[in-house]
Amino acid sequence: MAAQDQTSPKTRLQTRLRGFLNSLARPRRELLRIALQTGAATLATYLLVAGLGGLDLSWAIISALLTIGMSADLSYTYAVNRTAGACLGALIGLALAVLIGGPAIYALLVAVILANMVATIWPSLQYGAVTAAIVALEPDPELAAALSRTGAIVAGSCIGAVASFLIWPMRGRDRAEIGILDTLHDCQDMLTLINRGVSTDEHDRRDALHRRFLQHLDIARSRVAESRFSPALKTGADLRSAVRGVETLWHALVILDRAVTTERGDISAAALDRLAPAVDAVQDSAKRQIDRIIAMVKGTRDTAPPHDDLHSVVARARDQATDLAQEAATDWPGQARALHSVIFGLNETERQLDQISKILAVPDDRPDDARGVT
């Protein structure tokens, strides 16, 4: 509730500069990693398929390129789905070309319609329509030609997946961890905004921050969904539970922000002067708690972070707000209502910080309720 940010201009500049440099470094690493994997997959596919012969080199290279994903988990999923779809599509295309006969357009239409109907039910098999169309369009469809293209697609997919695992591999859980860290940094930024007070510019920043958090949350969810191998953080915490924990923490911070900023117009200046130091202390303690949570996500802490500091600070702020609400209950009911909103926001923030810390704790140190034990 302070009128301005307590950090020095030099510290804020260093923080912004560090964030800017990190935002530039991350895409460069991604681009370099994908470039190395793509080059290795293309070279390996060319040497192996051309050396063995009997397979369609073009389709093998195309398949290898399309298999390279943003993570090894995603590349594996692409390879499995593309292999299954290619085999199914080749079977459909060959069968219809032989059974229907006549102009190729008839077999083509039926083949792609059937393949897409299957893909509607099982979206992972959508690549089947490609091979079904290729085989159905053959002037003289033969089993050998169908096997050549299908084998090329399978070979390229496998080589692309292997390249993702061997050349600078990035696991899906590592990408999910980055997404979760981004959302936690957004939560810290929200606490900073709460601490600065309210102005037109700050309202704009809140809107921008909320949009950024939703974007980061969506990215984190998609990365969690792509994680197939060890879908857990380094502490053993489930990725989905971690994302849900951050989301509920954000909602609690929004409640606290609304209570502190929107309701303060109903609180007298004298009451604000008495309450502000306690609420500011809560916000500072909450930011330190999120720092500990970030360390847990990175795997640099083996046990759950201590909560004593946060709990004691919140208790003092809650007691201060309760005393002020009781004093204003008769003469100033609007102030009492506003203070109860602040108390609710404090309680929710404390509860959600406590809950996400339990979720991220190592399994042996995790309370029964965080492990789902009843």
TrEMBL record:
Keywords (A to Z) from UniProt: Cell membrane, Membrane, Transmembrane, Transmembrane helix
Pfam families per UniProt: FUSC_2
Transmembrane residue ranges: 57-76, 88-115, 146-168
GO cellular component: plasma membrane
Transmembrane found in the keyword field: yes
Coiled-coil intervals, chain numbering: none
Domain Integral membrane bound transporter: 47-162
Membrane topology annotation: Multi-pass membrane protein
Highest taxon of source: Bacteria
Subcellular location(s) per record: Cell membrane
Recorded family membership: Belongs to the YccS/YhfK family.
PANTHER family with a match to the protein in the record: MULTIDRUG RESISTANCE PROTEIN MDTO (PTHR30509:SF9), P-HYDROXYBENZOIC ACID EFFLUX PUMP SUBUNIT-RELATED (PTHR30509)
Protein name in the entry: Fusaric acid resistance protein-like protein
Organism (species): Yoonia vestfoldensis
